[in-house]
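User: For a benchmark we're assembling, each entry needs the component sequences followed by a predicted structure for the full assembly. Here are entry 17's components. Please fill in the structure.
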Amino acid sequence: MKSGFVAIIGRPNAGKSTLLNSIIEQKISIISPKAQTTRNAIRGILTDEDSQIVFVDTPGIHKPQHALGEQMNKEAISNMSGVDIIYYIVDATQDFGGGEEYIIKLMKNTKLPVFLLVNKIDCLNKDQVMNKLIEYSRKANFKEIIPISALKNDNVDELLKTTKEYLEDGIQYYPSDQICDYPEQFIISELVREKVLLLTNEEIPHSVAVVIEKIGRKKGKLIVMAMILVERDSQKGIIIGKQGRMIKEIGTLARQDIQGILGENIFLELFVRVEKNWRNRKAKLQQLGYIQMDIDDE
Ligand code: GDP
Ligand code: MG
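Assistant: Structure for entry 17:
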């Protein structure tokens, strides 16, 4: 399965949230007839037979008032190490200006592929669209330049198709039927991880990761299935322990902490899986947590 993370950046009003909704709505219509609200979604998750793309919507980038703010913006973008692709979305109905120049400057040092998405083409005629594409193509070295209308869902399929070509084989980060992220998810996986490290001492390396396989609510109770990923069979054995005693204790301690923090009852089921080459993928999950904290909840 191909999987990866896409950050959506751009000035306020460029159409970031509209694009995310447009992508995820397609998904809803495919997999779930009951439209779920994406009100609190920070990430949209698109899963099909052979790929999973996790989209991270970021707050719009404003030009900061002081140098420190600028430095922070710059680091936020060039250090997006957990992300595989950047979508830089611009409003084609607006003239190119300082705001765009600023973002392009921020992205200058990134090694990630940047897709320029020229949005709102439904408001322009063909010539105008063409001129915009040419104008922007001179501004930076974009890997792809794709005209879209996020609102009218125009050319979004093409965008997704191209995106998949850039993704590498990886694990599935979220269950197939999950379309948006639960904010609790990161807290839960970190607490389980903490207990694993606490109870296994030095035997389990810090590269151990915890992925939430399933999460949902039933009768007011949070139901969670979490997968502990290790790199070797011997580590799997340690975590399960004699007659499953170790994993049971990890679960008990984690559940107590999670209930304390979230203030609600939780049913927690743990599994262990050996996943080779996990280590280099781990930064991605870490990154997820950091990004989440930086997001506004408009
Ligand atoms: P964000 O600040 O980047 O998240 O921008 P939003 O997604 O909130 O969009 C800002 C405004 O632009 C909203 O009024 C959208 O309806 C509008 N908009 C977004 N995409 C399109 C588009 O493709 N065409 C048109 N005509 N309007 C769009
Ligand atoms: Mg937005």
